Amino acid sequence: MMVSHEIIAHYGVLVVFLNVLGASLGLPLPVIPTLITIGASSAIASPTVTAMLPQLAIILGAAVTGGILGDLVWFHGGKRYGERTLYTVCSLSLSRETCIARTENFFSRWGVRLLIVARFIPGLSLVSVPLCGAMAVRLRSFLWHDCAGVALWASSGLIIGGVFASQIEEIFALLSELGWRALVIIGSALPLYIVYRYWRRAMVARALRKTQIGVDSLREFLEH
């Protein structure tokens, strides 16, 4: 148990930074589980809430920094290439047209304030960021709202981990008993999850293509 907490204490900040950075760039990484785990570990290792706050502040700073750096790449891409960047991001979605229409609808209602809650809505954050660039949102306004959104989102994961620290500690104990087998399970879980996501996306896309009706078929159907 102590080994696990020591590893998290030494490398937790770096893990959070790289995890959030990768997710902001579009990689399918499990960021919230990582934040929950590190938040729980900080709560377990700290004798009081006051003693835990400085460590959580550093972790939160790492999450915000990683999120901002990743988002700036897409923001400048949207600013430079406009809708082409948005189409590139939405090509990762099941329906590119629906993805763009949905994001533009959100943006027309909320504007740049959308960034504050975008990370709580799956898939919206990665699309809303380049859209802000394409819509010529000022960099200062983008940074302010994106920073607030990343901080709010990351804080929720850390707080959940702190609140349920005792339950998560039991999971740590189980992993400690499994030893190297736990590493094999964790190491194989992420690739399997990624494969599952792409397989599910391919299956749904294939089903949607099969249900589409061409113009000639639709005209024939209406005539009969």
Brief descriptors of the model:
mainly alpha; 85% helix
- Percent of sequence in beta strands: under 5%
Radius of gyration: 21 Å
Measured as a percent range, the helix fraction is over 70%
Q: What is the average per-residue confidence, as pLDDT, rounded to a whole number? A: 77
Number of helices: 11
User: Would you count the extended β strands for me?
Assistant: 0
As residue ranges, the low-confidence spans are 211-215
Shape descriptor reads: globular
The main pleated sheet reads as:
none
Sequence of secondary-structure elements: HHHHHHHHHHH
Distance between the ends: 71 Å
Structural class: mainly alpha
Question: Could you characterize what this model shows?
Answer:
The protein has 224 residues and is mainly alpha-helical. 85% of the residues lie in helices and 0% in strands. It has eleven helices and no strands.
